[in-house]
């Protein structure tokens, strides 16, 4: 499949293909390549949802008329939002692209997905089930207008997938074969800055977690 993503007027072509002989096959947990392809597709729709959520101004903690990116629970309309404490006016990520939300982490097709937002000084804000995410300082709010990172990693490493992926506010996607550090299920979860070379959100991608993060060839 071929997708187009537009950021600040620039059109970026993303090729989302199935790396499986003979086609995509089904989405069963045993089909690692199909699960990885599905994870990339879900990441694509999360990035679309993020841009729509921000553009709608659903969260505007400092009242400056500039919307901020969302946490997954906010985007799917199941978590009260920062600032207002209300639910989003609409669902930005269709249930077609995810199966279950647990503590701010989405489960879909053998992969888990989690969004971090800037909390200041390279730290990440994450959501806790049933709680409105904590407020942050004005500088961090400004960063939330510009940055986020969403990670995707296997529920069972080696069985449901062998790679982890990341999406940020600009294209393209990033991936790692987890040669230095493995991520799996709810026990081994990527930290906020895993895919960045330096301080999370404001430094370039490449990896500080012992893994090599690069643009995948799918």
Brief overview:
This protein is of the alpha+beta class and 218 residues long.
Describe how the helices and strands are arranged.
Blueprint (H helix, E strand, L loop, with lengths): L1 E6 L2 E6 L16 H24 L16 H4 L24 E3 L2 E4 L2 E10 L2 E3 L12 H7 L4 E6 L9 E5 L5 E3 L42
Helical fraction equals 10-25%
Q: Looking at the structure, what is the overall shape?
A: globular
Counting helices, strands and paired strands, the structural category is alpha+beta
Mean pLDDT: 86
Order of helices and strands: EEHHEEEEHEEE
Q: What's the total count of β strands?
A: 9
| Main beta-sheet annotation | 7 strands, antiparallel
Radius of gyration: 16 Å
Structure description:
- By secondary structure, the chain is an alpha+beta fold.
- The chain has one domain.
- 16% of the residues lie in helices and 21% in strands.
- The protein contains three helices and nine strands; from the N terminus they run ββααββββαβββ.
- Strands 3, 4, 5, 6, 7, 8 and 9 form a seven-stranded antiparallel beta sheet that branches. Strands 1-2 form a two-stranded antiparallel sheet.
- It is globular.
- The N terminus is likely disordered.
